[in-house]
From TrEMBL:
This protein's UniProt keywords: Transferase
Protein's UniProt name: Succinyl-CoA--3-ketoacid-CoA transferase
Keyword Transferase applies: yes
SMART domains: CoA_trans (SM00882)
Lineage of the species this protein comes from: Bacteria, Bacillati, Bacillota, Bacilli, Bacillales
Record keyword Transferase present: yes
Transmembrane segments annotated in the record for this chain: none
InterPro entries to which the protein is assigned, alphabetical: 3-oxoacid_CoA-transf_B, CoA_trans_fam_I, NagB/RpiA_transferase-like
One protein family per Pfam: CoA_trans
């Protein structure tokens, strides 16, 4: 899972998380965010029933402690365990402050498709729909383009939407976008990336809101 591109995206997402917050990390790139958090006030949540998730060293892995993606995790001081139904009750009840999700596509309104590719078998939708409905803020972490080079920031998703709610922040390996009034605003370029490159790799319409412009 780990590579420099994913780690860069995860590190930037961690920079957006600070203070006393309950944060759910989705499957894929979001799971790496735990490696870069340096604020002990951030409390990580996983929908299979653990609050107080931490990263874990290879020599301290407990096979009974895993996140929703079945990856090994650690337990922080004061962590708690509960039934997955209670965990989803936390999500649906609005008790998760931030959800960090991966995505297959994001449209130019900020809506997310992240659970199914037409014609391919899937394991299930997971908690994405619940998190989109219940989390107070949503951050998307994904590569800017698919393996075939197609933009993942599109005018309209051709994969099934995970919900009608928009993301608040989108972080890719090329840029960072804020979603304001159902439109994309480019607020940051990743290191060694210029605006023209982002424009060439982005199908969706967006407004340039870079500092200094």
């Amino acid at each position: 899972m780990k590579n420099k591109t994913y780690e860069m995206i995860a590190k930037r997402a961690a920079m957006a998380l600070a203070g006393s917050r309950i944060v759910n990390l989705g499957i894929g790139i979001p799971t790496l965010v735990a490696d870069y958090l340096d604020d002990d006030a951030v409390c990580l949540h996983t929908e299979n029933g653990l609050l107080g998730v931490t990263k874990v060293d290879a020599d301290q892995i407990d096979p009974n402690l895993v996140n929703a993606g079945k990856l090994p995790v650690g337990e922080g001081i004061g962590s708690s365990f509960f039934h997955s139904a209670d965990s989803f009750g936390m999500i649906r009840g609005g008790h998760v402050d931030v959800a960090v999700l991966g995505a297959l596509q994001v449209d130019q309104c900020g809506r997310i498709a992240n659970w199914a590719v037409p014609g391919q078998s899937i394991l299930g939708v997971g908690g994405a729909m619940d998190l989109l409905a219940g989390a107070k803020s949503v951050i998307v972490t994904m590569t800017h383009t698919a393996k075939n080079g197609a933009s993942k920031l599109v005018k309209e998703c051709n994969y099934p939407l995970s919900g009608r709610r928009n993301a608040d922040l989108i972080i890719t390996d090329l840029a960072v976008f804020a979603v304001k009034e159902e439109s994309l605003h480019l607020i940051e370029l990743m290191p060694d990336v210029d605006l023209e490159h982002v424009q060439n790799k982005t199908e969706a319409d967006f407004t340039v809101d870079l500092a200094g412009d």
